[in-house]
Amino acid sequence: MPTSVELRQQRAGVVQSMRAITETAEGENRGLNAEERQSYDRHEEDFRSLTERIERLEAEEERSAQMAEPIRRGAARPDDSTRTTDEQRAQERRAAFFQALRRGLPRMAPEQRALVENTAGEILVPEDLETEINRSLPELTIMRGIASQRSTNSNRIRRRSLAEVAVGWGKLETNEQTLTDSMPSTPDEEYTYIEDLYGLAKVGEDELDDADINLDAFIRDSFARACAEAEDTAFTVGTGHAAHQPVGYMTSGGGVPTVAAAGATAITTDDMMKLIYATPKQYRRNGRFTIPSGTELAIATLKDADDRYLWQPSLQAGRPNTFLGYPVENQEDIAAVAASARVAAFGDFQAGYRIYDRQGMTVKVLTELYAEDGMIGWKIRKRVGGDVIRPQALRILTMAAA
């Protein structure tokens, strides 16, 4: 008779098969054919059946464990145990994850290995730990703090070009209303792809064997910092799916309209005002600048007609400086001021750019590759995408040609 852990492994295989069917159809931009639909329905029935068996077995295993425990004063009653079942499983997965990082999957007991191993033989980062890592990213990045974010279970997102809604006044009963077609041409169908972000961390074997090392804090801090730096660069200047990167809003692939500066080597107040007013008014309300630190230093000396500085330092920790009344975010991946360079952006990034996170961060333990150096390697994979979803919400300042 199979255990609940073995049934969970079977169910994971069923889910993988269902995902393969849908991804094949999505990749060909079509619905499921008759054979695929029949296979999908059969897998769905298997999933429901396995779920019922897992729940039944886990309940029996839990009752057996409770019957074997000695009676203790003040212990939780059997009917109270269901409240902590999910929490206990999360703790078990987390403990198994850190054990896998220290020892590797082959050296783990089968029941523990099943808690954290996926079908590709990689170690799955527990959902609660992945959530903690993602929660700390906005504190380390610019784009995650100002752009919209969304979770997905797909390897690409279908999006169609949509214009803003057009409205008009009139009376319905007398057919006096006049409506303008917001999209007179045929919409284009496009995709935003979820890309793989890889990282490598190495830890000394002696350090890893020390009982006092806080792996929990190390994973959260190290993973989050490494991912944050790479993501911010890709969301800003990433060249798209052909290069296995998100689409950066500062690139031509993002489709953001540009505003030409008057000069080639210096930014003026007029250039920055032109950038602001080129952005539609509905997006100026939540507008903000993104520029590198060197460019902010240059505009910090600009003054108005009354010799007052237009740049204002922040008086509160955690809040950005302002220029012409709008927040200034430092994004060091943007080009410095030079002829023909894209040097600044302005607009509502919450409306204009979206980040897609696909759950399922994984780790591979490389025990042999660095054995001679006394090190153990962790190869980390995180799946994330990003794209401009509303180009009209943003504007880019481009310097004049030399």
TrEMBL record:
Name this polypeptide is given: Phage major capsid protein
Compositional bias segments (type: Basic and acidic residues): 27-46, 70-90
Gene3D superfamilies named among the record's database cross-references: hypothetical protein PF0899 domain, Major capsid protein gp5
Domain of life: Bacteria
SUPFAM superfamilies given in the database record: Major capsid protein gp5
Principal cellular location given in the protein's record: virion
Localization annotation: Virion
Domain Phage capsid-like C-terminal positions: 121-398
Disordered: annotated segments: 23-46, 60-90
Stored Pfam families: Phage_capsid
